[in-house]
Design goal:
The complex is a heterodimer. By secondary structure, chain A is mainly alpha-helical. Helix content of chain A is 75%, strand content 0%. Classes of the chains: A mainly alpha, B mainly alpha. At the A-B interface, helix 1, helix 2, helix 3, helix 4 and helix 7 of A face helix 1, helix 2, helix 3, helix 4 and helix 5 of B.
Chain lengths: 460, 184
């Protein structure tokens, strides 16, 4: 019966829309199906005895130790107001250029992506701090809000990012599975670090494309993005140079340490994350932002985010256990064999599916539920694992930007001034969605963009 | 305050206090990881016991933190419709979800993992690696602690939903003030 897995997937999607927490819904729906299956004799109840092993596998997963550490680092940096200082100093530095404020936003977004990696926090911070002043200084609302949404989502693609840690862990086990299925016994592996390295160039290319677009827009329609006199950007902060240095130096130093140690292969992502978290704490201390209350807030937020992530992992593993018990793997396999266009057709369909699911599901849920089902099949068809990971990440980033359901749009709507209409935000992100799609196309044509750098680092 | 409110208050307070205690593990994890890095790169000392200690702290952090996360209503929802539901609509979703999805899951984990953990205790199971920690049975106990704590808070959530259906003024679970959501 290969209808049951499909039905299960449809029911879980419908149940999720009701709004009960995703992690529990995933596991709960799977349990109900398992119960019905056991009563009707279509499901072997012994499959459920694998649960302790599965759960202990999650408890003992050493790769994912990087998750709470990166969360701690991101929240700590956010609380120590790194973003605010970065934003005000970069705005003063770049403001006098045509489209300068916009470029400042992009650079700040990219730096925050590489240090904190928290999408919502970036969009909210820039939406609160930069959007009102950009509007006041004559920026077109569409352009300003589109820019803020788009740069906020960079946190998912520019390493080190929590999203890539999760994706890397799932892809590495999918890759093992795929190779065993292909009959290769001397398997090669990929790691979270590989995915970080692979995502670096595509992430930077995206930043470059955003900047080029911003410059072009400012040249063709200067009234949309006027150059701004430096005095309008807050002379009360004192001389420019020291402000830029104190604003830029802390996040740059952290990025250099964290990313540098991973890229040169000296440290594992977990070690780098630990040092990053420690560094963020030191920075907060130096900036006199580290009180006992702040520390407690950061620690508690870390526990909540980590608890949320791992509960989804637990719920998703119960779901996939039952899904497999019903023969869901074979069903997906057969489905893929019937798609025209071979590997290309299959990849295209998976990308479209992930894009659509990105409207209702978070990065974590897609990574834990969808990727383990589809990735082994694609990888067994010969798709490169790092390339696939980067494609999925850019794809989801695009999905989170696309109206009307994109997450980034919700965050900005929540903090944008009333005068900015929701339709203006929607219109504003369109050029950036096109840039994202262009990036996906470029990646599809030249996979080397993602695979070249990891190969270089391996060769050493 | 009637007895139902008093029970809800007790359960809520328990999960909150427990979570605030668990939160210190986050700091411990940062410091322990930094220590491991320092020992490895500055003194060329690698300790399997320390590495496993790091895993124990990490595992306890999230397994013991899941119920606290529920208490703060921070398990992500697809809230496109949920946030537009009425007070009663949201209460129904939470009540039915807790009874149909969450509590059965807790029971399933408790039932399937019980023997697994008991056997580990009987054997006083230790690390498979030489130089590792001899406390794998303690680590495995997390598989029972997590669903137990979660059951406590799930009962609180069911009670909260019932109270919301009974009293139109009954508030949602209070989110930690000013801390906000850190994810996304």
């Amino acid at each position: 019966m290969e209808l049951i897995p499909l039905l299960m997937f449809a029911v879980v999607c419908a149940a999720l829309m009701v709004g009960y927490p995703v992690a529990f819904t995933l596991a709960g729906v799977a349990l109900l199906f398992a119960l019905i299956g056991m009563v009707s004799g279509t499901f072997d109840g012994n499959d459920l005895t694998f649960i302790p092993n599965r759960l202990f596998g999650i408890v003992g997963n050493t790769t994912l130790i990087a998750v709470p550490l990166f969360v701690f680092m991101g929240v700590m940096l956010e609380k120590s107001k790194v973003a605010e200082h970065l934003l005000t100093s970069m705005a003063r530095l770049m403001g006098p250029l045509p489209g300068g404020l916009g470029i400042a936003i992009i650079i700040v977004g990219a730096l925050l992506a590489a240090s904190t990696g928290i999408v919502g926090a970036t969009v909210v911070t820039m939406g609160l701090l930069a959007l009102p002043s950009m509007l006041k200084l004559g920026y077109k609302p569409e352009l300003a809000s589109g820019l803020i949404c788009a740069t906020g989502t960079l946190g998912q693609i520019i390493p080190p990012s929590i999203a890539l840690v999760l994706l890397g862990d799932v892809l590495s086990s999918s890759y093992q599975q795929a190779q065993l299925k292909m009959g290769l016994w001397s398997t090669t592996t990929i790691s979270v670090g590989d995915l970080f390295v692979g995502a670096l160039i595509p992430g930077l290319v995206l930043v470059a494309l955003y900047i080029i677009y911003m410059l072009a827009h400012a040249m063709i329609r200067p009234q949309d993005a006027p150059a701004v006199d430096r005095t309008a950007l807050g002379d009360e902060h004192g001389p420019l140079l020291p402000q830029v240095i104190t604003g830029l130096l802390p996040p740059l130093a952290l990025i250099l340490v964290v990313l540098g140690s991973i890229l040169t292969g000296t440290a594992t992502p977990t070690e780098a994350a630990g040092v990053g978290a420690f560094g963020a704490m030191l920075l907060a201390m130096i900036k006199r932002q580290l009180s006992l209350t702040t520390l407690q807030e950061v620690m508690r937020a870390t526990v909540r985010v980590t608890g949320m992530v791992f509960m989804i992992l637990i719920g998703a593993s119960v779901f996939s256990l039952v899904f497999r018990g019903f023969g869901g793997d074979d069903a997906v396999h057969q489905l893929f064999e019937h798609i025209p266009g071979g590997t290309f057709g299959a990849t295209l369909m998976v990308m479209a599916l992930i894009f659509l699911l990105g409207f209702i599901l978070d990065f974590i849920e897609i990574t834990f539920v969808v990727v383990p089902i589809v990735a082994p099949v694609l990888l067994a068809m010969g798709v490169d694992p790092i390339w696939l990971g980067v494609m999925i990440a850019v794809n989801l980033q695009t999905s989170f930007l696309t109206p009307p359901f994109g997450f980034a749009l919700f965050y900005l709507r929540g903090v944008a001034p009333e005068q900015v209409a929701t339709m203006q935000i929607y219109r504003g992100v369109v050029p950036f969605i096109l840039i994202q799609l262009l990036m996906l196309g470029v990646l599809a044509l030249w996979p080397a963009l993602a695979t070249w750098l990891p190969a270089q680092i391996y060769a050493q | 305050m009637d007895i139902a409110h008093r029970i809800l208050h007790r359960l809520d307070r328990f999960s909150l206090a427990f979570g605030h205690g668990v939160a210190w593990l986050a700091l411990a994890l940062v410091l322990l990881t930094s220590l491991i890095v320092l020992l490895r790169y500055a003194f060329d000392i690698g300790s399997i016991a320390l590495q496993e200690g790091q895993l124990y702290v990490h595992a306890s952090l999230f397994m013991l933190g899941i119920a606290y996360t529920l208490r703060c209503d921070e398990h992500v929802r697809v809230d496109i419709f949920y946030r537009r539901f009425s007070h009663n609509g949201r209460a129904w979703v939470d009540l039915l979800g807790t009874l149909l999805f969450l509590l059965p899951l807790c029971v399933l984990i408790l039932v399937t993992c019980f023997d697994y953990v008991v056997v580990s205790w009987q054997r006083q199971e230790g690390s498979a690696d030489a130089g590792g920690l001899p406390f794998v049975y303690v680590l495995k106990t997390l598989l029972l602690l997590m669903p137990t704590l979660l059951t406590v808070q799930a009962l609180a959530e069911a009670l909260r939903a019932l109270l919301k259906l009974r009293y139109p003024q009954e508030p949602d679970a209070d989110k930690p003030a000013g801390e906000g959501s850190a994810w996304n």
